[in-house]
Amino acid sequence: MIFRGTLLHEHYIMVLFTEAMKVAFHPTPSILRLEFDLAEDDGVYTEHITMIESEFRVELPFNVDIDAIHPDHLALIVLLAAHPFIGSSLHIPLNVSERFALSTDLISRYKVTYAGRSVPPYVPPDSSRPGLAFSGGADSTAALLVMPENTLSVFMDRPFRKKTSLYNKSAALATIKHAQKEGYDVKTIACDVEYVRSPLGFPTDLVPSIPLLAIAAEEGINSIAFGTVMESAYRIGHEKARDYATSHHHRFWGRLFQAAGVPLYLPVAGVSEVGTSSIVMNSSFYDYTRSCIRGTWPDACENCWKCFRKNMLDAALKKEPVNDTYLRRGLAIKEVKLKIQHWPVSHENVLAWSLQQAEGNISNLLMARFEGSSRDLSYLEGYFPPSLSLMPEAYRSHTEERLNHYLYPLGEEWFDTVRTHTMTSWLNSASALEARGKFSAFMDREFPRD
What we know:
By secondary structure, the chain is of the alpha/beta class. It has helices spanning about 10-15, 70-80, 100-105, 140-145, 170-180, 210-220, 230-235, 250-260, 275-280, 305-315, 325-330, 335-340, 350-355, 360-370, 395-405, 415-420, 425, 430-445, and strands at about 20-30, 30-35, 50, 55-60, 90-95, 110-115, 130-135, 150-155, 185-190, 195-200, 220-225, 265. Among the domains are: about 1-120, no CATH class; about 295-380 and about 415-445, no CATH class. A ten-stranded mixed β-sheet has the order 6-5-1-2-4-9-8-7-11-12, with helices on both faces. A two-stranded antiparallel ribbon has the order 3-10.
């Protein structure tokens, strides 16, 4: 369906609302450029995270007609990029559907206005299929492996600017090449949205779906998936777990994606990093998937937090206990030294699971400071059945079947652990504080801070 007249004629592009953040669309063949005009109260998310560039680009495949992008999808793209930086109001000069406009009317922190609210809502065609915002890492690959075979995966190709990032996409491109060889439909679309903020990064965690949203109408996409794992969705491994299905994040973004006609599809939200790594290890992707985003393929950088964590997990899955030699080298890495001092450590459940069979003085010191040292972590090897509700109903049975192929469903005795477990009592306990003190003393002695 072509939506001509809703977006790209000059009299729609700029509307003067001095009190609101405004966005202008500057389309050229195969390139969608968005430019923001900030009001006085816009541009600051936190003291340390601000909006520093006013525009970004999406370079579309040559066969995509920019006028075919549904205005609801364009509006959602704007919100994904601007949400943290909007002060009191945002004006999007598009005629969107009433369904989508009503979903943004519920936003309480700021007001969203449009040029109109009369466009028919996006309805996927009968031949529609799911889409996956594909990163090329283990979690994203695991998501692909439990989704339908006709899934369209889109990798957001982040353009490189000198001296701005250590990011290296060679590993992701190797995974994509293997996926295409295996018959999966994977596209790469360049988008530089990460440069709008300082420090460099995604304005919101669902930003990698922007390229997929831009071609959703052209490709007949009926849902958008992410490789979000249980540590992120349910926040296991953090101080307080949550029931993601009722969380603010899911209510907010789930409502917007639903209103845009592309509901969220979270196939591995009920799977821990332990499980996603196991899925990949037991597939043809194992030799082609690497979560490190700094090293040049086929080598990992072996000098970052992700390498430290994922290598330990990989070894544990292979029944190869982590040794003190590896830990001593890893704990000397600058980024690891910073991360490991957090209380609690991010994803500490995965680290604790990986160290269960380790032996040695360093592993004992490290394990003792993890809350996971005091409880059964076997549930990380299964998947959380209630997470099936985070998927479009049409795909639940397929994804459940694929999850059962790789993992086992957790029994109800684990449901409260996933949804409501808290570390607070343990973090404040005398034994935990003692373990923390001993480990900190060890780090100060063996690895003095720079």
